[in-house]
Design a protein that fits this description.
Helices cover 70% and strands 0% of the residues. The protein has 191 residues and is mainly α. It has two domains: 67 residues, Arc Repressor Mutant, subunit A; 114 residues, no CATH class. Helix 1 crosses helix 2, helix 5 packs antiparallel against helix 9 and helix 8 runs antiparallel to helix 9. The longest helix is centred in the C-terminal third of the chain and has 21 residues. 21% of the residues are buried.
């Protein structure tokens, strides 16, 4: 018979994954600042002390959530980090990324909310987002946009469009995310 509190024992990896999934949903809905450590624990049927057994702090949990999102993106979108052969191949890779985001609204919301909160240098994810932007731009320049006459400018333009599209789509789900992407991509990859 399970304990009256509803708490249950799980293998370490399974419990960690459960915590990360619940934290992702809570942060996407309320932002990081709006969720207490107790709320994270409660969402998983754990005590605060039990949660701290898996993550040393609320900030560590946040970084783990962000790293998990990055891992999921990399494993499902990019087959290789080798440079693509040209605009058509680059468009295919980026369209896979766009389609993936279209199917995971809560993760897009999580990233968008946290990215906005983390503009503040005091936010625990500020350095994470600065590093991610720098590394993302470099990856785009060298792996997906090396064919472009100005890969540095193209990387910033591509990221700016995607960030803006995602933000507007979160505000208005009637926006046809994929159609907007295809319209932009038709021009962007026609260099």
């Amino acid at each position: 018979m399970p304990p009256a509190t509803g708490r249950r024992r799980l293998p370490l990896a399974e419990r960690r994954e459960e915590i990360l999934k619940a934290a992702t949903e809570l942060i996407a809905a309320s932002g990081f600042k709006g969720v207490t450590l107790e709320a994270f624990a409660e969402a998983c049927g754990m005590t605060k002390a039990g949660l701290l057994h898996h993550f040393r702090s609320r900030d560590d949990l946040l970084i783990a959530v962000l790293e998990r999102r990055d891992e999921l993106d990399l494993t499902t979108v990019v087959d290789t980090l080798e440079p693509v052969s040209g605009p058509a191949a680059s468009r295919i890779v980026m369209t896979r990324f766009v389609r993936r985001n279209l199917g995971q609204r809560s993760l897009v919301q999580l990233y968008t909310v946290l990215a906005a909160e983390a503009v503040d240098p005091a936010h625990p994810a500020h350095d994470y987002f600065r590093t991610r932007l720098r590394e993302g731009r470099a990856m785009l320049e060298h792996s997906l946009l090396s064919w472009h006459p100005r890969p540095d400018l193209a990387a910033v333009e591509l990221l700016a469009f995607l960030d803006g599209l995602q933000l507007n789509w979160l505000r208005d789900p009637d926006i046809d995310y994929l159609a907007q992407w295809q319209s932009f991509a038709g021009r962007f990859f026609a260099v």
